[in-house]
Write a structure and sequence with these properties.
A: 5-stranded antiparallel β-sheet; B: mainly beta; 4-stranded antiparallel β-sheet
Chain lengths: ~110, ~110
């Protein structure tokens, strides 16, 4: 069983839709939770970052972490064709566990069509 | 502003050949890492370094060597290439502040035939 599970999709939605992406994990030591966006043939770019449980909002994007359920989500409101990309969740155990030792999900490919 | 630079962008190797993937960052980051990305697998950590002279293994280290002689550079060496090492390789760097993000290079697409 993988430490981080993520549905690879693909997910196809019409422009303006609300998109929900999620990951589950098994390691309770994870404290830092991230969402990366990766355009085709490019490196991943950090989209959202959350420490421990709670919500974080940035424009059209909202990240949620529920450590009790070992479940994280990314919501995209008013989705745009420019949001078409692969979205990767990533987690780490913090400084003592190696902050830069990121464990990634498989990535969900999202296509937003006009 | 270069960020993380990887070379080459593309490479084809024959089985058994060796090569070095280069990674350089100009952000004075202490942490550097190498990941490989395969379809349906996400990114998997190969090796990482927490500073010059210090390296450690990640999730999939077999067949790869690293060294960190300077803060800026973190090369990844394939000792004897195998078809199973066909992948896209990403180098990343991050600062020591836990609130800083990991910056990724553009990747090296490696094919071993």
């Amino acid at each position: 069983q993988k430490e981080v599970e993520q549905d690879p999709g693909p997910l196809s939605v019409p422009e303006g839709a609300i998109v929900s992406l999620n990951c589950t994990y098994s390691n309770s030591a994870f404290q830092y939770f991230m969402w990366y966006r990766q355009y085709s043939r490019k490196g991943p770019e950090l989209l959202m970052y959350t420490y421990s449980s709670g919500n974080k909002e940035d424009g059209r994007f909202t990240a949620q972490v529920d450590k009790s359920s070992k479940y994280i989500s990314l919501f995209i409101r008013d989705s745009q064709p420019s949001d078409s990309a692969t979205y990767l969740c990533a987690m780490s155990g913090g400084f003592s566990g190696g902050y830069n030792k990121l464990i990634f999900g498989a990535g969900t490919r999202l296509a937003v069509h006009p | 502003n270069a960020g993380v630079t990887q070379t080459p962008k593309f490479q084809v190797l024959k089985t058994g050949q060796s090569m070095t993937l280069q990674c350089a960052q100009d952000m004075n980051h202490e942490y550097m890492s190498w990941y490989r990305q395969d379809p349906g697998m996400g990114l998997r950590l190969i090796h990482y370094s927490v500073g010059a002279g210090i390296t450690d293994q990640g999730e999939v280290p077999n067949g790869y060597n690293v060294s960190r002689s300077t803060t800026e550079d973190f090369p990844l060496r394939l000792l004897s290439a195998a078809p199973s090492q066909t992948s896209v390789y990403f180098c990343a760097s991050s600062g020591t502040d836990m609130n800083t993000e990991a910056f990724f290079g553009q990747g090296t697409r490696l094919t071993v035939v």
